[in-house]
User: Which sequence fits this backbone?
């Protein structure tokens, strides 16, 4: 059992990261903690795609005389490029969310979800 976990350690790390992120998003009341959970979840998803694209013994996708034109000898660069784009989107999303959190805190003086909802109901 332990040996099976160690042979699949990247997948175990991916599941742990996704679980921590999902827990943070669903069960934390503070909006900043929810944002941190979202970032952890995104990191787990990115790690999952990178682990899936990894090939043991493969090389970069530049035609080499020793490997020839065997497609199985090369790593597919598309998932890596997509995850690079996902990282950029994640950073942009985090920046916008932090700006919104600063604005929310400036207006309501709290980031607790229940207190925010109560304050917003009083404003109506």
Assistant:
């Amino acid at each position: 059992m332990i040996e099976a976990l160690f042979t699949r350690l990247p997948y175990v790390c991916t599941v742990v990261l996704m679980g921590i992120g999902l827990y943070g998003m669903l069960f934390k009341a503070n909006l900043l903690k929810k944002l941190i959970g979202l970032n952890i979840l995104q990191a787990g998803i990115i790690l999952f795609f990178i682990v899936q694209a990894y090939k043991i013994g493969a090389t970069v996708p530049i035609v080499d005389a020793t490997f020839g034109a065997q497609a199985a000898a090369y790593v597919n660069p598309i998932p890596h490029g997509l995850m690079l784009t996902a990282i950029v989107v994640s950073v942009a999303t985090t920046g916008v969310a932090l700006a919104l959190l600063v604005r929310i805190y400036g207006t309501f003086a709290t980031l607790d979800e229940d207190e925010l909802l109560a304050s917003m109901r009083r404003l109506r």
Remarks:
- The chain has one domain: 2-123.
- Residues 2-123 form a domain with the Helix Hairpins fold (CATH 1.10.287.3510).
